[in-house]
């Protein structure tokens, strides 16, 4: 437990807190007259109780895994090692030949880790189920009433805040259900609130109040004083009804003593659409169900709103295929004046509801144009006449597939690989760091610096450039200084431009740099521009395309709107009078049908695919507008947007809304 603090600063446990948990396990575990059964029951109860303590804290995914729907191994025949790679559930397949009997469960997991990193989480979940039981992978519902019963007057109850979730509403409902609504006092900490908070705690200790201090991370200067107040609780005898509730975002300066003495609870939204919908329905009271004059329609629309809210939250797990920018949709967005509109109109005002929900409540968070387009697509699907006439699902699966979000099954791969890497990095951080004092000898070969420098383009010589341009540069500076003395300060501040955005490692980045240099060297050596442009080689491709668009628009006297036409082959390159030919783009979130030149579903395990040569030219017609990004981080980097241009592509046999939900986009460069 002490090592858990390395994962998150809010993971802090004291020996006294552990002893209290062990005593509680002795009290609540099943009793038996047989010593062996009693010890087994105690160990089983205490192990699960300890896991519940960890599951209430932040970063739950490091200590538990959501339940996975794993098919039974008997459904699959004996397959070879290579067939494990494309399988959806390789952890359930028997290992080939002698590997099946010679490998234990952990060693099989290592094989899956080498072939399919995206399926390691399923292997870990199966490992936990087989050794501890299925309840250890099921995220428990936070029962705040049980937390109060298990706590004492000397135990702070700490909410670790997550983006988009506010525990105040649930805490108010608990106070009302517990008969403490009149004795419940809440205060949002900030500048000048420290004396009020101190007085509230002292009065609550005497009178038995519930004191809730929100946003402790905004008042860190007062935290030492709060630490002393919590320490006094350990020696005093507070009123039996007194409880101290705290909420704070994770912060390394939060007092460790308070964390060790308290019960920590995370406010992270539950995993999965079904769990999120259950949580949202708990926020709706019975009076809200009955106050509407049209309860049947209201309940169906409420279901649609819950499903819509859950889809928006869970879509974040698909990373760049989910949202270009991660938004903090919260429970306050869920509160809609739907009943007011239903009561005042004979027919449901769909357009007004859509604008209220997607344009005001949720749309106020969205800043990216393509994310706003996705939000509009979802609201049009879920809020229509079918929402009140068609029957809804009676049962929702515990684990939803990507198709629920309009995504391809491949969309899970990237997020699961990222989750696996985070898991391994976290486990490595808990291991002792071992450093080696061995150094390379004199005959160890060239250094990495020399290897990297040797990969650079040999066409540029700093000394040669200095000789050729020194005279012209000196004259230009002298003339400028004569005209404007202040330019001397500006010349001192001149520097090379910042590196272009890229996620490539050093080796791939160096190769990419050499290709960029070669493109411009070939262009500089010819009298005409290239027939085929490598768009990814430009530092500012948006400016290049804008210049091409404006030039063609002036030539043909048309409105400057970009249209793209994909060329199937370019065996005999010719200069285009209209626009330019572009190569080197990658399609993410879809596949490409070369025969029909349209979008199709991606093949299994195909995350990106190269797209043929594209002809950019200005025309008036429109198709599916596919965004093109500089690199996989669609939100940009360092204040520089990643979006380059919108590319019109044929949507194929499905409507263009299908590809909006898929998050289909073009990429100029990859991360490898």
UniProtKB/TrEMBL annotation:
Cellular component annotations (GO), alphabetically ordered: dynein complex
What Gene3D superfamilies would the database entry show?
1.10.8.1220, 1.20.1270.280, 3.10.490.20, P-loop containing nucleotide triphosphate hydrolases, Region D6 of dynein motor
Fetch the InterPro entries from UniProt: AAA_lid_11, AAA_lid_11_sf, DHC, Dynein_C, Dynein_C_barrel, Dynein_heavy_D6_P-loop, P-loop_NTPase
Q: Where is the Dynein heavy chain C-terminal domain?
A: 499-668
Q: Which domain of life is it from?
A: Eukaryota
UniProt-recorded Gene Ontology molecular function terms: dynein intermediate chain binding; dynein light intermediate chain binding; minus-end-directed microtubule motor activity
One GO biological process term: microtubule-based movement
Name of the protein in question: Uncharacterized protein
Pfam families, alphabetized: AAA_lid_11, Dynein_C, Dynein_heavy
User: Residues in domain Dynein heavy chain AAA lid?
Assistant: 298-390
Q: What is the lineage of its organism?
A: Eukaryota, Metazoa, Chordata, Craniata, Vertebrata
Q: Give the organism the record lists.
A: Hucho hucho
Q: Please state every residue range assigned to the domain named Dynein heavy chain region D6 P-loop.
A: 153-266
């Amino acid at each position: 437990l002490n090592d858990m603090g390395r994962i998150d600063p809010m993971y802090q446990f004291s020996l006294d807190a552990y002893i209290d948990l062990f005593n509680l396990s002795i009290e609540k575990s099943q009793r038996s007259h047989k010593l062996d059964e009693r010890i087994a029951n105690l160990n089983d109860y205490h192990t699960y109780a300890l896991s519940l303590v960890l599951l209430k804290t932040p970063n739950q995914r490091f200590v538990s895994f959501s339940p996975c729907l794993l098919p039974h191994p008997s459904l699959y025949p004996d397959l070879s090692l290579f067939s494990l790679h494309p399988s959806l559930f390789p952890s359930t397949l028997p290992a080939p030949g002698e590997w099946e009997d010679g490998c234990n469960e952990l060693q099989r997991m290592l094989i899956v880790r080498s072939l399919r990193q995206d399926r390691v989480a399923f292997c870990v979940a199966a490992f936990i189920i087989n050794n501890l039981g299925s309840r250890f992978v099921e995220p428990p519902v936070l029962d705040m009433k049980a937390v109060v019963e298990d706590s004492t007057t000397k135990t702070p109850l700490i909410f670790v805040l997550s983006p988009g979730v506010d525990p105040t509403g649930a805490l108010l409902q608990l106070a009302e259900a517990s008969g403490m609504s009149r004795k419940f006092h809440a205060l949002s900490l900030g500048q000048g609130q420290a004396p009020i908070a101190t007085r509230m705690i002292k009065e609550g200790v005497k009178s038995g109040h519930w004191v809730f201090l929100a946003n402790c991370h905004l008042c860190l200067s007062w935290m030492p004083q709060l630490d002393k107040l919590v320490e006094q609780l350990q020696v005093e005898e507070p009123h039996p009804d007194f409880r101290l509730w705290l909420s704070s975002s994770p912060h390394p300066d939060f007092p460790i003593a308070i964390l060790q003495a308290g019960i920590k609870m995370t406010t992270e939204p539950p995993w999965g659409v079904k769990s999120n919908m259950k949580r949202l329905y708990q926020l709706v009271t019975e009076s809200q169900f009955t106050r509407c004059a049209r309860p049947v329609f209201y309940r169906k629309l409420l279901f649609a709103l819950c499903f819509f809210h859950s889809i928006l939250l869970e879509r974040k797990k698909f990373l760049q295929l989910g949202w270009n920018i991660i938004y903090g949709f919260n429970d306050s967005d869920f509160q809609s004046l739907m009943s007011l509109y239903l009561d005042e109109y004979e027919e449901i005002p769909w357009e007004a509801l859509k604008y209220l929900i997607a344009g005001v409540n949720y749309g106020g968070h969205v800043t990216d144009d393509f994310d706003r387009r996705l939000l509009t697509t979802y609201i049009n699907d879920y809020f229509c006449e079918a929402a009140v006439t068609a029957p809804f699902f009676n049962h929702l699966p515990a684990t939803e597939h990507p198709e629920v979000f309009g995504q391809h099954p491949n969309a899970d791969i990237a997020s699961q690989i990222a989750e696996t890497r985070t898991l391994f990095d976290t486990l490595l951080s808990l291991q002792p760091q071992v450093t080696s004092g061995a150094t390379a000898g004199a005959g160890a070969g060239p250094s990495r610096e020399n290897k990297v420098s040797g990969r650079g383009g040999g066409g540029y010589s700093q000394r040669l450039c200095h000789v050729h341009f020194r005279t012209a540069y000196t004259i230009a500076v002298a003339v400028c200084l004569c005209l404007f003395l202040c330019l001397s300060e500006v010349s001192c501040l001149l520097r090379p431009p910042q590196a272009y955005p890229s996620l490539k490692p050093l080796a791939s980045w160096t190769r990419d740099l050499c290709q960029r240099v070669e493109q411009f060297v070939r262009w500089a050596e010819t009298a005409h521009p290239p027939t085929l442009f490598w768009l990814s080689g430009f530092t500012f491709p948006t400016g290049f395309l804008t210049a091409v668009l404006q030039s063609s628009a002036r030539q043909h006297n048309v409105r400057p709107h970009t249209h793209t036409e994909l060329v199937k082959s370019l065996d005999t390159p010719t200069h285009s009078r209209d626009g330019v030919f572009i190569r080197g783009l990658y399609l993410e979130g879809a596949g490409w049908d070369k025969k029909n030149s349209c979008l199709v579903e991606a093949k299994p395990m195909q995350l990106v695919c190269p797209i043929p040569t594209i002809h950019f030219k200005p025309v008036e017609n429109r198709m599916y507008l596919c965004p093109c990004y500089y690199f996989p981080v669609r939100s940009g980097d360092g204040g520089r947007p990643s979006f380059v241009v919108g590319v019109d592509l044929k949507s194929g046999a499905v409507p263009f809304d299908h590809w909006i939900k898929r998050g289909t986009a073009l990429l100029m460069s990859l991360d490898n």
